[in-house]
Design goal:
single chain; mainly alpha; 2 helices
């Protein structure tokens, strides 16, 4: 169940940040957003093996 909610949250975050990058297409902003998305995906990957609480 945690993985399902994590995937929904990841999709919502990517959609939100994608619209933000579309409005402010600065290279530095794109790099910051990509780093944030990468960190979120790494955390989601690590959390998939934890037990549901």
């Amino acid at each position: 169940m945690k993985l399902l909610f994590g995937l929904i949250g990841a999709a919502l975050m990517i959609a939100f940040l994608g619209s933000f990058v579309a409005k402010v297409p600065e290279p530095a902003m794109i790099v910051v957003v990509l780093i944030g998305i990468l960190m979120m995906l790494i955390d989601l990957w690590q959390a998939r093996t934890e037990a549901d609480t």
